[in-house]
Design goal:
373 residues, alpha+beta
């Protein structure tokens, strides 16, 4: 058994792969034993996705350490999935063992998944057209491929980082005075989302195309994706979703404005952000089925497009549309995390309460809202 295979079998991800998939994975990754080594510098495009097995990786801007990677965590997602230059230096100050998954291999796996799914749609009764990586019987869908599994794992890890940023922001702002609104809006009737659009509402193609990574999506794919969304009216003063509820959907705002509020235990609510056209709210809770961390109240009449979490589960297979969509969600989360970390850095350097509160609002706003350009 190769060293790469032995190391990969330590990962929870390995249990979701077939034997052939695992062997293919092991044949195409590198296991690096590092000590006092810079993996890449800011401005460089890393060679692939890193996964730390042992030790620790330091993430730096210049000479300042801004974070670290722990065993089991991935790093370099923006470069691996989108080919973007790194914004930070990544360094192994002491011993670290890393699996490096080359970008060329990830792209090949992405293409393979799309091809396999297309073959299934064209000839679902033929077993011999399938690659043995998928171990399917006639009429079965292909298994979720390695690319989709890695994409999903990275998404969950970025969500975890976002929540750690929130916790750190809460510590930094523990003593800061916060302005709470009077609880009058709590008496408003909770507006349950219903599909009640005007008959002439067009599908949200332009909004979807404005989301990260969706600009190059084929028109047919955007039409398929648009069919997953349900149009809903927003009525001024109505609570759209409430903090603590199950995260069973996300909302893409088409018209109007929505306030993002956090309810306080003592009563009242703190305004985290006001968002409008193009904002995509409720993503985090929808992805990992956690309770809502904020309440949304419609500030004006408007229109939103609701994406039920069930639609995400239905599209768990490796269709091209599903891959584009998951890549877009990961890009949204990475952008949220970047903005939140920048705001947290400003909060930690704030010289007075006003600057601290403003910076902390930036953390909270970034961590609850994605956006369409």
């Amino acid at each position: 058994m190769s060293d790469a295979m032995m190391e990969l079998k330590r990962l929870p991800l390995a249990s979701a792969l077939t034997r052939t998939q695992l062997e293919n994975f092991a044949d195409n990754v590198q296991v690096l034993a590092l000590r006092d080594t810079r993996l890449w510098s800011a401005g460089q495009v890393p060679k692939g996705l890193g996964l730390l097995l042992d030790g620790e990786i330091s993430v730096r801007v210049g000479d300042v350490a801004i974070g670290s990677v722990k065993p089991g965590e991935v790093f370099g997602e923006s470069a691996a999935f989108y080919g973007e230059p790194s914004k930070v230096d990544v360094y192994a100050p002491d011993f670290a063992k890393v699996i490096l998954i080359p970008r060329s291999f990830l792209q090949a796996e992405r293409d393979r998944e799309v091809d396999q799914h297309d073959l299934f749609l064209r000839r679902p009764w033929r077993l011999d057209i399938f690659d043995p990586d998928y171990d399917v019987r006639p009429g079965e869908r292909p298994r979720r491929g390695l690319y989709s599994l890695l994409l999903h794992e990275c998404t969950l890890q970025v969500l975890a980082r976002i929540r750690r940023t929130n916790a750190r922001a809460a510590e930094v702002g523990r003593s800061a005075p916060r302005a709470l609104r009077e609880p009058s809006w709590f008496q408003l009737v909770l507006g349950r989302l219903r599909a009640e659009p005007p008959a002439d509402v067009p599908r949200p193609l332009s909004l979807l195309r404005g989301l990260p990574r969706m600009a190059d999506a084929p028109e047919r794919m955007l039409l398929q994706l648009a069919d997953c969304f349900e149009p809903v009216k927003l009525h001024a003063g109505t609570v759209v979703v409430r903090q603590g509820e199950a995260g069973d959907s996300a909302l893409l705002i088409a018209e109007g404005e929505v306030e993002v509020l956090r309810e306080a235990v003592s009563g009242g609510a703190e305004l985290l952000a006001t968002v409008g056209t193009g904002a995509f709210v409720g993503i985090n809770a929808m992805i990992d089925a956690t309770p809502r961390s904020a309440t949304l109240v419609a500030l004006t009449d408007g229109l939103a497009w609701k994406l039920p979490a069930s639609e995400m589960r239905e599209r768990r297979w490796s269709s091209e549309m599903g891959i584009f969509w998951r890549e877009s969600l990961l890009a949204l989360l990475l952008d949220q995390l970047r903005k939140a970390n920048e705001a947290l850095e400003r909060a930690e350097q704030a010289s007075d309460d006003a600057a601290l509160i403003e910076a902390l609002s930036g953390v909270e706003g970034a961590n609850h809202v994605g956006s369409s350009t």
